[in-house]
Protein backbone atom coordinates (compact mmCIF):
# COMPACT_ATOMS: atom_id res chain seq x y z
CA UNK A 1 0.00 0.00 0.00
CA UNK A 2 1.29 3.45 -0.96
CA UNK A 3 0.98 6.44 1.37
CA UNK A 4 1.89 10.01 0.48
CA UNK A 5 2.73 12.09 3.56
CA UNK A 6 2.05 15.79 2.90
CA UNK A 7 4.14 17.87 5.30
CA UNK A 8 6.37 14.87 5.99
CA UNK A 9 9.35 16.94 7.20
CA UNK A 10 7.53 18.41 10.23
CA UNK A 11 7.18 17.51 13.91
CA UNK A 12 4.33 15.03 13.38
CA UNK A 13 4.90 14.32 9.67
CA UNK A 14 8.48 13.04 9.92
CA UNK A 15 7.91 10.42 12.64
CA UNK A 16 4.69 9.39 10.87
CA UNK A 17 6.52 8.83 7.57
CA UNK A 18 9.08 6.63 9.37
CA UNK A 19 6.43 4.70 11.31
CA UNK A 20 4.45 3.93 8.16
CA UNK A 21 7.62 2.93 6.30
CA UNK A 22 8.60 0.64 9.20
CA UNK A 23 5.15 -0.97 9.05
CA UNK A 24 5.74 -1.90 5.41
CA UNK A 25 3.89 0.87 3.60
CA UNK A 26 5.53 2.37 0.53
CA UNK A 27 6.00 5.99 1.64
CA UNK A 28 6.72 9.25 -0.19
CA UNK A 29 6.95 12.71 1.34
CA UNK A 30 5.71 16.00 -0.10
CA UNK A 31 7.03 19.08 1.70
CA UNK A 32 8.23 22.60 0.82
CA UNK A 33 10.47 22.74 3.93
CA UNK A 34 8.62 25.89 5.05
CA UNK A 35 8.93 24.91 8.73
CA UNK A 36 12.72 25.20 8.39
CA UNK A 37 12.28 28.63 6.73
CA UNK A 38 10.11 29.75 9.66
CA UNK A 39 12.92 28.73 12.05
CA UNK A 40 15.14 31.16 10.16
CA UNK A 41 12.47 33.86 10.20
CA UNK A 42 12.06 33.52 13.98
CA UNK A 43 15.80 33.21 14.57
CA UNK A 44 15.44 29.99 16.54
CA UNK A 45 16.29 26.37 15.77
CA UNK A 46 14.86 23.09 16.98
CA UNK A 47 16.37 22.15 20.36
CA UNK A 48 17.38 18.87 18.80
CA UNK A 49 19.88 19.08 15.92
CA UNK A 50 17.74 17.97 12.98
CA UNK A 51 19.49 16.98 9.76
CA UNK A 52 18.51 17.93 6.19
CA UNK A 53 15.67 15.98 4.59
CA UNK A 54 18.16 14.31 2.25
CA UNK A 55 20.33 13.16 5.18
CA UNK A 56 17.26 11.97 7.08
CA UNK A 57 16.08 9.85 4.16
CA UNK A 58 19.58 8.44 3.49
CA UNK A 59 19.92 7.54 7.20
CA UNK A 60 16.57 5.73 7.11
CA UNK A 61 17.70 3.76 4.07
CA UNK A 62 21.01 2.89 5.78
CA UNK A 63 19.31 1.74 9.00
CA UNK A 64 16.34 -0.14 7.55
CA UNK A 65 17.02 -0.67 3.84
CA UNK A 66 13.73 1.10 3.09
CA UNK A 67 13.27 3.89 0.56
CA UNK A 68 11.28 7.06 1.16
CA UNK A 69 10.90 9.37 -1.85
CA UNK A 70 10.88 13.15 -1.34
CA UNK A 71 9.08 15.71 -3.53
CA UNK A 72 9.64 19.38 -2.82
CA UNK A 73 6.53 21.32 -3.72
CA UNK A 74 4.16 23.80 -2.11
CA UNK A 75 0.63 22.54 -1.67
CA UNK A 76 -1.91 25.22 -2.44
CA UNK A 77 0.41 26.70 -5.08
CA UNK A 78 2.06 23.98 -7.17
CA UNK A 79 -1.21 22.37 -8.18
CA UNK A 80 -0.12 20.97 -11.56
CA UNK A 81 2.98 19.31 -10.11
CA UNK A 82 0.88 17.82 -7.31
CA UNK A 83 -1.74 16.31 -9.64
CA UNK A 84 1.06 14.98 -11.88
CA UNK A 85 2.61 13.30 -8.83
CA UNK A 86 -0.74 11.72 -7.86
CA UNK A 87 -1.26 10.43 -11.41
CA UNK A 88 2.23 9.01 -11.61
CA UNK A 89 2.63 7.54 -8.12
CA UNK A 90 -1.06 6.58 -7.54
CA UNK A 91 -1.13 6.54 -3.71
CA UNK A 92 -3.82 4.56 -1.88
CA UNK A 93 -3.87 7.04 1.00
CA UNK A 94 -2.50 10.46 1.74
CA UNK A 95 -1.89 11.96 5.15
CA UNK A 96 -2.26 15.74 5.20
CA UNK A 97 -0.05 17.57 7.72
CA UNK A 98 0.94 20.34 5.28
CA UNK A 99 -0.35 23.30 7.31
CA UNK A 100 1.09 26.10 9.46
CA UNK A 101 0.33 24.65 12.89
CA UNK A 102 1.21 27.24 15.56
CA UNK A 103 -1.56 29.37 17.07
CA UNK A 104 0.81 32.10 18.39
CA UNK A 105 2.60 32.34 15.01
CA UNK A 106 -0.77 32.77 13.29
CA UNK A 107 -1.56 35.70 15.64
CA UNK A 108 1.75 37.58 15.34
CA UNK A 109 0.65 40.13 12.74
CA UNK A 110 -1.74 40.68 9.85
CA UNK A 111 0.91 39.17 7.57
CA UNK A 112 1.06 35.98 9.66
CA UNK A 113 -2.74 35.72 9.71
CA UNK A 114 -2.85 36.06 5.91
CA UNK A 115 -0.07 33.52 5.41
CA UNK A 116 -1.73 30.97 7.69
CA UNK A 117 -5.13 31.31 6.02
CA UNK A 118 -3.73 31.23 2.46
CA UNK A 119 -1.39 28.37 3.15
CA UNK A 120 -3.67 26.10 5.13
CA UNK A 121 -6.98 26.49 3.36
CA UNK A 122 -5.50 26.39 -0.16
CA UNK A 123 -3.38 23.36 0.74
CA UNK A 124 -6.49 21.49 1.85
CA UNK A 125 -8.67 22.54 -1.07
CA UNK A 126 -5.95 21.77 -3.63
CA UNK A 127 -5.43 18.33 -2.09
CA UNK A 128 -9.12 17.50 -2.33
CA UNK A 129 -9.60 19.04 -5.78
CA UNK A 130 -6.59 17.09 -7.07
CA UNK A 131 -7.96 13.79 -5.74
CA UNK A 132 -11.26 14.50 -7.52
CA UNK A 133 -9.58 15.61 -10.76
CA UNK A 134 -7.35 12.54 -10.99
CA UNK A 135 -10.29 10.21 -10.30
CA UNK A 136 -8.04 8.08 -8.08
CA UNK A 137 -9.54 6.29 -5.09
CA UNK A 138 -7.39 7.85 -2.37
CA UNK A 139 -8.28 7.86 1.33
CA UNK A 140 -7.47 11.35 2.70
CA UNK A 141 -6.37 11.37 6.36
CA UNK A 142 -6.09 14.87 7.81
CA UNK A 143 -4.52 16.06 11.02
CA UNK A 144 -7.14 18.34 12.52
CA UNK A 145 -7.20 19.75 16.05
CA UNK A 146 -9.24 19.57 19.24
CA UNK A 147 -9.27 23.37 18.93
CA UNK A 148 -12.06 23.19 16.33
CA UNK A 149 -14.47 22.59 19.22
CA UNK A 150 -13.13 25.40 21.39
CA UNK A 151 -12.31 24.56 24.97
CA UNK A 152 -15.50 25.91 26.55
CA UNK A 153 -16.99 24.00 29.43
CA UNK A 154 -19.65 22.12 27.45
CA UNK A 155 -21.27 20.33 30.40
CA UNK A 156 -20.86 17.10 28.41
CA UNK A 157 -18.03 15.10 26.88
CA UNK A 158 -17.14 16.58 23.50
CA UNK A 159 -18.29 13.97 20.96
CA UNK A 160 -16.21 12.78 18.00
CA UNK A 161 -17.10 15.40 15.43
CA UNK A 162 -20.89 15.23 15.35
CA UNK A 163 -23.55 16.50 17.73
CA UNK A 164 -27.12 15.17 17.96
CA UNK A 165 -29.58 18.07 18.03
CA UNK A 166 -33.36 18.25 18.29
CA UNK A 167 -35.05 20.76 15.99
CA UNK A 168 -38.55 22.13 16.57
CA UNK A 169 -40.32 21.95 13.20
CA UNK A 170 -44.01 22.52 12.28
CA UNK A 171 -44.33 18.71 12.13
CA UNK A 172 -42.87 18.22 15.59
CA UNK A 173 -39.40 17.54 16.92
CA UNK A 174 -36.83 16.20 14.46
CA UNK A 175 -33.45 14.76 15.39
CA UNK A 176 -30.36 15.57 13.33
CA UNK A 177 -26.64 15.06 13.61
CA UNK A 178 -24.62 18.14 12.73
CA UNK A 179 -20.92 18.99 12.83
CA UNK A 180 -20.13 20.03 16.41
CA UNK A 181 -20.30 23.85 16.38
CA UNK A 182 -16.94 25.35 15.43
CA UNK A 183 -15.44 27.65 18.06
CA UNK A 184 -11.83 28.43 17.10
CA UNK A 185 -9.56 30.36 19.46
CA UNK A 186 -6.92 31.53 16.96
CA UNK A 187 -6.52 32.13 13.22
CA UNK A 188 -4.65 28.82 13.02
CA UNK A 189 -7.48 26.92 14.72
CA UNK A 190 -9.96 28.77 12.49
CA UNK A 191 -8.28 27.34 9.37
CA UNK A 192 -8.90 23.84 10.72
CA UNK A 193 -12.60 24.60 11.21
CA UNK A 194 -12.68 25.72 7.54
CA UNK A 195 -10.93 22.49 6.58
CA UNK A 196 -13.76 20.57 8.28
CA UNK A 197 -16.29 22.28 5.99
CA UNK A 198 -14.19 21.50 2.91
CA UNK A 199 -14.12 17.84 3.97
CA UNK A 200 -17.87 17.79 4.57
CA UNK A 201 -18.46 19.22 1.08
CA UNK A 202 -16.07 16.93 -0.82
CA UNK A 203 -17.33 13.81 1.00
CA UNK A 204 -20.91 14.75 0.09
CA UNK A 205 -20.33 16.03 -3.45
CA UNK A 206 -17.59 13.72 -4.71
CA UNK A 207 -17.89 10.74 -2.34
CA UNK A 208 -14.27 11.19 -1.26
CA UNK A 209 -13.18 8.96 1.62
CA UNK A 210 -11.93 11.31 4.33
CA UNK A 211 -10.82 10.88 7.94
CA UNK A 212 -10.30 13.99 10.09
CA UNK A 213 -8.32 13.43 13.29
CA UNK A 214 -8.91 16.08 15.94
CA UNK A 215 -5.65 15.93 17.81
CA UNK A 216 -4.81 17.36 21.23
CA UNK A 217 -1.50 18.93 22.25
CA UNK A 218 1.40 16.63 21.41
CA UNK A 219 4.10 16.05 24.01
CA UNK A 220 7.33 14.12 23.73
CA UNK A 221 9.73 14.17 20.81
CA UNK A 222 11.12 10.80 19.82
CA UNK A 223 9.40 7.65 18.55
CA UNK A 224 10.64 4.08 18.17
CA UNK A 225 11.79 4.92 14.64
CA UNK A 226 13.37 8.37 15.19
CA UNK A 227 15.46 6.84 18.00
CA UNK A 228 17.15 4.42 15.60
CA UNK A 229 19.84 6.89 14.48
CA UNK A 230 20.97 10.41 15.50
CA UNK A 231 20.32 11.61 11.94
CA UNK A 232 16.64 10.61 12.29
CA UNK A 233 16.00 12.72 15.40
CA UNK A 234 12.69 14.57 15.51
CA UNK A 235 12.46 18.33 16.00
CA UNK A 236 11.72 19.76 19.47
CA UNK A 237 10.28 23.28 19.64
CA UNK A 238 10.60 25.27 22.84
CA UNK A 239 10.20 28.88 21.65
CA UNK A 240 7.24 31.14 22.42
CA UNK A 241 5.56 30.56 19.05
CA UNK A 242 6.04 26.89 18.19
CA UNK A 243 6.81 25.28 21.54
CA UNK A 244 3.74 23.62 23.02
CA UNK A 245 3.00 23.89 26.70
CA UNK A 246 4.23 20.62 28.17
CA UNK A 247 7.38 20.40 26.04
CA UNK A 248 8.11 24.03 26.94
CA UNK A 249 7.74 23.33 30.66
CA UNK A 250 10.04 20.31 30.35
CA UNK A 251 12.88 22.24 28.75
CA UNK A 252 12.32 25.27 31.00
CA UNK A 253 12.81 23.02 34.05
CA UNK A 254 16.14 21.86 32.60
CA UNK A 255 17.26 25.42 31.85
CA UNK A 256 16.52 26.70 35.37
CA UNK A 257 13.89 28.98 33.80
CA UNK A 258 10.66 29.46 35.79
CA UNK A 259 7.77 27.64 34.14
CA UNK A 260 5.81 30.16 32.04
CA UNK A 261 2.22 29.58 33.18
CA UNK A 262 -0.25 31.91 31.43
CA UNK A 263 -2.74 33.56 33.78
CA UNK A 264 -3.86 31.20 36.53
CA UNK A 265 -2.94 28.16 34.42
CA UNK A 266 -6.63 27.26 34.57
CA UNK A 267 -6.91 26.14 30.95
CA UNK A 268 -7.65 22.42 30.62
CA UNK A 269 -6.48 20.84 27.38
CA UNK A 270 -6.30 17.45 25.71
CA UNK A 271 -2.90 15.75 25.27
CA UNK A 272 -1.30 12.89 23.37
CA UNK A 273 2.22 11.50 23.18
CA UNK A 274 4.03 11.68 19.81
CA UNK A 275 4.38 7.88 19.75
CA UNK A 276 0.61 7.57 20.01
CA UNK A 277 0.19 10.17 17.24
CA UNK A 278 2.00 7.98 14.72
CA UNK A 279 0.13 4.86 15.86
CA UNK A 280 -3.19 6.67 15.47
CA UNK A 281 -2.36 7.65 11.90
CA UNK A 282 -1.60 4.01 11.05
CA UNK A 283 -4.91 2.96 12.67
CA UNK A 284 -6.79 5.60 10.68
CA UNK A 285 -5.24 4.42 7.40
CA UNK A 286 -6.16 0.82 8.20
CA UNK A 287 -9.78 1.74 8.94
CA UNK A 288 -11.00 4.05 6.18
CA UNK A 289 -14.60 5.18 5.76
CA UNK A 290 -16.54 3.71 2.84
CA UNK A 291 -17.11 5.60 -0.37
CA UNK A 292 -20.15 7.85 0.09
CA UNK A 293 -19.90 7.77 3.90
CA UNK A 294 -19.74 11.04 5.80
CA UNK A 295 -16.34 12.28 7.02
CA UNK A 296 -15.00 9.96 9.71
CA UNK A 297 -13.98 12.16 12.64
CA UNK A 298 -11.98 10.80 15.58
CA UNK A 299 -10.66 12.62 18.63
CA UNK A 300 -6.94 11.88 18.73
CA UNK A 301 -6.15 12.52 22.38
CA UNK A 302 -5.56 10.28 25.35
CA UNK A 303 -5.89 12.45 28.50
CA UNK A 304 -6.81 15.93 29.68
CA UNK A 305 -4.83 18.12 32.09
CA UNK A 306 -5.06 21.60 33.53
CA UNK A 307 -1.98 23.70 32.69
CA UNK A 308 -1.19 24.54 36.33
CA UNK A 309 -1.44 20.85 37.29
CA UNK A 310 1.18 20.07 34.66
CA UNK A 311 3.39 22.83 36.04
CA UNK A 312 2.92 21.43 39.55
CA UNK A 313 3.82 17.93 38.36
CA UNK A 314 7.02 19.14 36.70
CA UNK A 315 7.95 21.26 39.73
CA UNK A 316 7.53 18.18 41.89
CA UNK A 317 9.83 16.18 39.62
CA UNK A 318 12.50 18.80 39.01
CA UNK A 319 12.22 21.49 41.71
CA UNK A 320 11.52 24.18 39.09
CA UNK A 321 9.84 27.48 40.01
CA UNK A 322 6.75 28.91 38.35
CA UNK A 323 6.05 32.38 36.96
CA UNK A 324 2.32 33.13 36.63
CA UNK A 325 2.45 35.51 33.64
CA UNK A 326 -0.21 37.77 32.12
CA UNK A 327 -1.87 35.69 29.40
CA UNK A 328 -1.03 36.89 25.85
CA UNK A 329 -4.00 34.85 24.55
CA UNK A 330 -7.67 35.75 24.62
CA UNK A 331 -8.93 32.62 26.37
CA UNK A 332 -11.01 31.76 29.43
CA UNK A 333 -9.17 31.86 32.76
CA UNK A 334 -10.53 28.44 33.69
CA UNK A 335 -12.33 25.71 31.74
CA UNK A 336 -13.36 22.10 32.17
CA UNK A 337 -12.81 19.75 29.26
CA UNK A 338 -14.21 16.25 28.83
CA UNK A 339 -13.60 14.49 25.56
CA UNK A 340 -14.83 11.25 24.00
CA UNK A 341 -12.06 9.18 22.40
CA UNK A 342 -13.71 5.77 22.02
CA UNK A 343 -13.03 5.51 18.26
CA UNK A 344 -9.24 5.18 18.35
CA UNK A 345 -9.31 3.17 21.60
CA UNK A 346 -11.80 0.86 19.89
CA UNK A 347 -9.38 0.42 16.99
CA UNK A 348 -6.72 -0.77 19.43
CA UNK A 349 -4.82 2.31 20.63
CA UNK A 350 -3.11 1.66 23.98
CA UNK A 351 -2.32 5.13 25.30
CA UNK A 352 1.03 6.18 26.70
CA UNK A 353 0.03 8.31 29.66
CA UNK A 354 1.98 11.21 31.06
CA UNK A 355 3.29 9.29 34.03
CA UNK A 356 4.64 6.43 31.89
CA UNK A 357 6.85 8.36 29.55
CA UNK A 358 7.48 11.71 31.20
CA UNK A 359 10.79 11.02 32.88
CA UNK A 360 12.25 9.33 29.82
CA UNK A 361 11.51 12.35 27.74
CA UNK A 362 13.04 14.78 30.20
CA UNK A 363 16.26 12.83 30.36
CA UNK A 364 16.43 11.88 26.70
CA UNK A 365 15.86 15.16 25.02
CA UNK A 366 15.51 18.22 27.25
CA UNK A 367 18.58 17.44 29.34
CA UNK A 368 20.73 16.22 26.44
CA UNK A 369 20.19 19.31 24.32
CA UNK A 370 19.56 22.06 26.91
CA UNK A 371 22.90 23.63 25.94
CA UNK A 372 21.43 24.43 22.49
CA UNK A 373 18.57 26.52 23.88
CA UNK A 374 18.42 30.30 23.38
CA UNK A 375 16.82 31.74 26.54
CA UNK A 376 15.76 34.91 24.70
CA UNK A 377 13.38 32.80 22.59
CA UNK A 378 11.48 31.35 25.55
CA UNK A 379 8.93 34.17 26.21
CA UNK A 380 5.59 34.14 24.34
CA UNK A 381 5.51 37.51 22.60
CA UNK A 382 2.57 37.03 20.21
CA UNK A 383 -0.49 38.71 21.72
CA UNK A 384 -4.01 37.87 20.52
CA UNK A 385 -5.28 41.49 20.50
CA UNK A 386 -4.51 45.02 21.73
CA UNK A 387 -5.86 44.33 25.24
CA UNK A 388 -3.73 41.23 25.63
CA UNK A 389 -0.69 43.10 24.31
CA UNK A 390 -1.21 45.82 26.92
CA UNK A 391 -1.58 43.17 29.65
CA UNK A 392 1.63 41.39 28.69
CA UNK A 393 3.72 44.55 28.79
CA UNK A 394 2.88 45.06 32.49
CA UNK A 395 5.81 44.50 34.90
CA UNK A 396 6.58 40.80 35.33
CA UNK A 397 4.99 39.20 38.42
CA UNK A 398 7.03 37.41 41.04
CA UNK A 399 8.20 33.86 40.53
CA UNK A 400 6.50 31.39 42.89
CA UNK A 401 7.38 27.98 44.09
CA UNK A 402 4.61 25.42 43.53
CA UNK A 403 2.17 24.46 44.86
CA UNK A 404 0.57 27.91 44.64
CA UNK A 405 -1.13 28.97 47.89
N1 LIG B 1 0.44 27.97 27.75
C1 LIG B 1 1.03 28.39 28.94
N2 LIG B 1 2.36 28.65 28.93
C2 LIG B 1 3.14 28.49 27.82
C3 LIG B 1 2.55 28.05 26.63
C4 LIG B 1 1.18 27.81 26.62
O1 LIG B 1 0.38 28.54 29.97
O2 LIG B 1 4.35 28.75 27.92
C5 LIG B 1 -1.01 27.69 27.72
C6 LIG B 1 -1.78 28.44 26.64
O3 LIG B 1 -2.18 29.73 27.10
C7 LIG B 1 -2.94 27.50 26.36
C8 LIG B 1 -2.34 26.12 26.60
O4 LIG B 1 -1.16 26.33 27.37
O5 LIG B 1 -3.97 27.69 27.28
C9 LIG B 1 -2.00 25.35 25.35
O6 LIG B 1 -1.08 26.07 24.54
P1 LIG B 1 -0.14 25.30 23.48
O7 LIG B 1 0.76 26.32 22.86
O8 LIG B 1 0.50 24.13 24.13
O9 LIG B 1 -1.21 24.71 22.45
P2 LIG B 1 -2.06 25.36 21.25
O10 LIG B 1 -1.69 26.75 20.96
O11 LIG B 1 -3.50 25.10 21.55
O12 LIG B 1 -1.66 24.52 19.96
C10 LIG B 1 -1.09 23.22 19.99
C11 LIG B 1 -0.45 22.95 18.63
C12 LIG B 1 -1.54 22.91 17.56
C13 LIG B 1 -2.61 21.90 17.94
C14 LIG B 1 -3.16 22.19 19.32
C15 LIG B 1 -4.08 21.10 19.82
O13 LIG B 1 0.51 23.94 18.30
O14 LIG B 1 -0.97 22.57 16.32
O15 LIG B 1 -3.67 21.93 17.01
O16 LIG B 1 -2.06 22.25 20.28
S1 LIG B 1 -5.35 21.73 20.89
O17 LIG B 1 -4.74 22.64 21.87
O18 LIG B 1 -5.95 20.61 21.56
O19 LIG B 1 -6.27 22.47 20.08
Radius of gyration: 21 Å
- Terminal-residue CA separation: 56 Å
So what's the CATH class? Alpha Beta
CATH superfamily: NAD(P)-binding Rossmann-like Domain
- Total number of distinct structural domains: 1
| Elements, N to C (H/E) | EHEHHEHEHHEEEHEEHEEHEEHEHHHE
Structural class determined from secondary elements? alpha/beta
Q: Which hetero ligands occur in this complex?
A: sulfoquinovose-uridine-C1,5'-diphosphate
The fold-level CATH name is Rossmann fold
Percent helix:
25-40%
Tally of separate helices:
13
Strand count:
15
Q: Strand order across the biggest sheet?
A: 3-2-1-4-5-8-12
Please characterize this protein's 3D structure.
It contains 13 helices and 15 strands. By secondary structure, it is α/β, with parallel strands linked by helices. It has one domain (2-400): NAD(P)-binding Rossmann-like Domain (Rossmann fold), CATH 3.40.50. The strands form four sheets. It has a seven-stranded parallel β-sheet, with helices on both faces. Strands 9-11-13 form a three-stranded mixed β-sheet. Strand 1 (2-6), helix 1 (13-22) and strand 2 form a beta-alpha-beta unit. The radius of gyration is 21 Å and the shape is globular. The relative contact order is 0.15.
Helices and strands in order:
Layout: E1 2-6, H1 13-22, E2 26-31, H2 34-42, H3 53-64, E3 68-72, H4 79-89, E4 93-96, H5 103-106, H6 110-134, E5 139-145, E6 162-169, E7 172-179, H7 187-206, E8 210-215, E9 217-219, H8 245-255, E10 259-262, E11 268-273, H9 274-286, E12 296-300, E13 303-306, H10 307-318, E14 322-325, H11 342-346, H12 354-369, H13 386-392, E15 399-400
Parallel strand pairs: 1-2, 1-4, 2-3, 4-5, 5-8, 8-12, 9-11, 10-14
Antiparallel strand pairs: 6-7, 11-13, 14-15
Helix pairs in contact: 1-9, 4-6, 6-7, 8-10
Sulfoquinovose-uridine-C1,5'-diphosphate binds next to α8, β10 and β11.
Amino acid sequence: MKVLVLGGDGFCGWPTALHLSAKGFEVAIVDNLSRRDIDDELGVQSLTPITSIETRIAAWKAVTGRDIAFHKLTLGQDYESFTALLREWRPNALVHFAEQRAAPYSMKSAQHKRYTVNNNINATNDTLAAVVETGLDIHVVHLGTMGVYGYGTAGMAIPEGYLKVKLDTPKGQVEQEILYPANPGSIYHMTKTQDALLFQFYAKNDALRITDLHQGIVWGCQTEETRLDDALINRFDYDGDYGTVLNRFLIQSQLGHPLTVHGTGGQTRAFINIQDTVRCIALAIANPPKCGERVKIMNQMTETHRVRDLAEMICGLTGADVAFLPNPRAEADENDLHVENKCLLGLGLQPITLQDGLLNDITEVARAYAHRADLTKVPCLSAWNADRLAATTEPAPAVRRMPAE
